[in-house]
Amino acid sequence: MRFSTTYVTAGLLGLALAHPVEKRANSLPPVDSNTDESVLQLALYLEHLEFSLYTGGFENFTDAEYTAAGFPAGFRENVGVIAQHEETHADTISAILTKASKSPVPPCTYKFPYNSPTSFVDLANMITSVGIGAYLGGGALLTDDPMLLTAASSILTVESRHDAYLRAGVGASPFPTSFDTALTGTFAYNLAQMFIVECPKQLPLPILPKLTLKSPMPPPNLQPPTPAGTELQFTYDPSKFFVQPPAGAPLYIGLINMVTNVTYTEVTSCGDNCAQIPVPKGAAGAAFAVLTTFSPDAALTEDQLTQFGALAGPAEVILS
User: Fold this and answer.
1) In the chain, which ranges are E strands?
2) Among 56, 44, 191, 46, which residue's Cα sits nearest to residue 112?
3) At what angle do helices 117-139 and 146-169 cross, to 10 degrees?
4) ω into residue 245 within 30 of 0, thus cis?
5) Is residue 105 classed as helix, strand or coil in its secondary structure?
6) Which one of 27, 103, 151, 305 has the lowest number of neighbouring Cβ atoms within 10 Å?
7) pLDDT computed for residue 221 by the predictor
């Protein structure tokens, strides 16, 4: 199994020289509040992770390996271009924070479980979906200055193009849903933790108990879509819960997907510490599951689920 690193070798450097990024003298947007800084620090945290991911996807496989796996000509080179974009995003966010006398969060050391071009692209789709969700969720909080919201939005659209290109390359639909799924900062941060080996500095966000998707795993080319009614199984460790639910209390999975609110389904047992629900009708694309004691009647929003409703999670589920 091959794992990407945080270093850029001569191969990616040469690609960068072949595709130079235009430098413009535009002024950097201000950071006017603690909320602005929190959103930017999380965005930078995720951009560092994505830069390492895509650098590995470029360096760890040859053009011939991508071609043999069925990817179109030039795919590896474009993976390298995506890595450049992620580096530029990280550099720009760092510059915005530095200008505002804030210390940008440094890169971590990462470990990515892929061993082929196809498994790399499947993983990249999952991680990029988290990044897209974080920008969507964070953008709603950037209300202090329109220039900062515009900067974040311009990164979001590029991230979406990256994901569409990758999905098309692996044979999946480049646009599997009518809407993308927004994530709270805490949920996006927790989803990133599975790839972190160590960090010189973590963000001041809570680390929640894990919820792990047991089955089904997405097929190698993300096709066919997972139909409604398919049983999703998740495992968890109740000893890690921050609050222990009453004995015998029903548990639910809140499934965050697209622009609908959270869909709550009571779980059935699939063994010790294993919760099972059917895929709700209409769910598609990237969805995020959270274990909770709150029933559908409570109708918790994603923000409320983040603040006080989560027993464990989130777990990412790629449905199409």
Assistant:
1) 109-110, 196-198, 211-215, 231-236, 252-256, 263-266, 268-269, 274-278, 286-292, 312-318
2) 56
3) 160
4) no
5) coil
6) 27
7) 73
- pLDDT tens figures, 229-263: 999 999 999 999 999 999 889 999 999 999 877 99
In DSSP terms, 198 is beta-bridged to 109
With residue 196 as reference, give the H or E element that holds it: strand 196-198
C-alpha pair distances (Å), 117 with each of 22, 52, 110: 30, 15, 18
Which of 274, 272, 232, 266 lies closest to 249 in space, CA to CA? 266
Residue from 21, 45, 28, 9 nearest 199 by CA: 45
Residue 127's identity, in one-letter code, is: I
Answer whether residue 176 shows pLDDT above 90. yes
The token pair at 127 is 């991680």
Lowest mean pLDDT among 10-19, 43-52, 100-109, 274-283: 10-19
Q: What is the Cα 67 distance to its own chain's centre?
A: 27
pTM above 0.85, yes or no: yes
Q: What's the pLDDT tens digit per position in 154-167?
A: 999 999 999 999 99
Q: What is the CA radius of gyration of the chain?
A: 20
Are the CB atoms for 115 and 2 separated by under 8 Å? Answer: yes
202's tokens: 């973590």
Separation CA 42–CA 135 (nearest Å) = 9
